[in-house]
């Protein structure tokens, strides 16, 4: 799973806090809590206490880990501190807010009215929370070659590679990069590689490095007076680069556009039968809706208008129920297929389900090509302002495998990621091939994907797992896919627009 953890610092300011002290203003402090399940919250950090102010700007930043693929529910509480104990139970509560870390980073700065409890405002008090990623985004890019190396293999030439080490705090050497092996070559040219400066030398340009490559053969040196070396390694190019992160793009204003495609083919079974994958349990859910809710909840924080196009495929539609449709608007409004929030998609699904006749075949390529055409239009802006995520929920019996392969290879050159969640007990071998984790996916004419954009996960693996586990698994690769696309195009993050003056 991709490691998408980064550190974020929140800075907090407030205005018009309630006055709880007689004859003077409050002495406020801000506490940051994160939800850990159910109704339990854990304190992560708190600011300093400021004296005698109703409009504090705290200098102490609140630091926490950021994970794109989970909903991180936060609570910020402001307290009036009138004693020296760290327990807040005996301090006056001046109000707080609940929101997700995703909401803060996607807006970069959020202002909200403070509440004493749900629906009860804390006077005119407001809080502003701003986020900043903590990082050294420099990277070192190196290209190396060697000339005239010794033969080390009995019958062929050598298979050389290089290893780089940085010196750790205790003087120990830690491996930071190993090049690929160049087979059977005494004058190898290794591929250009890029290592974050933090990893390469702990961001310290004066820290010693060691390259493991024995170009002096001491035995030969003893035997031959004329011996010079066993080859020369040289640096062809060395550059310092800025490596942008997912948060650089999101906080710069890049929008993630979320589209859903739902499989209504006959292999799902008649929705009126309890054995059908579309059958609604008494609590109004099924595997399709559970998967949609889990993934959609995370994604929706990154889309400002919360309007999501949703489509169905593989069903015959009223009034005439003629041919199967492979890309119809879930709300039956082809000119405006947008649903308001994840709740809107679920509502449209529940409305449309009784009116459909499940049919076939199972064709993925129409909906992939549809979203790809919108992503193509977005590329004309020539900047990093839009990225698209298509979630396909399916029982996995795919008919147009070759056309889908071709559609994915074309889409790999676009700002698009495709997530496929397999619902039900089917054999998902075809889906695993599309995922391409075990090898590079190629089109029917042998063209390889430009980058890996498909993530497949069978829902059954998560049936008994915590609700958040599915989203963590399917969304883990999206940040790296987004960064890899904009890097491939050479696009820097958008420059955040200055806040409008009120």
TrEMBL record:
Domain of life: Eukaryota
PROSITE patterns recorded: C2 (PS50004), VWFA (PS50234)
Keywords, ordered alphabetically: Repeat
A biological process term (GO) from this entry: positive regulation of tumor necrosis factor-mediated signaling pathway
UniProt keyword Repeat present: yes
InterPro entries in the record: C2_dom (IPR000008), C2_domain_sf (IPR035892), C2B_Copine (IPR037768), Copine (IPR045052), Copine_C (IPR010734), VWF_A (IPR002035), vWFA_dom_sf (IPR036465)
SMART domains: C2, VWA
GO molecular function: calcium-dependent phospholipid binding
Cited SUPFAM superfamilies: C2 domain (Calcium/lipid-binding domain, CaLB) (SSF49562), vWA-like (SSF53300)
Coiled-coil ranges per UniProt: none
A GO cellular component annotation in the UniProt record: plasma membrane
UniProt family annotation: Belongs to the copine family.
Name of the protein in question: Copine I
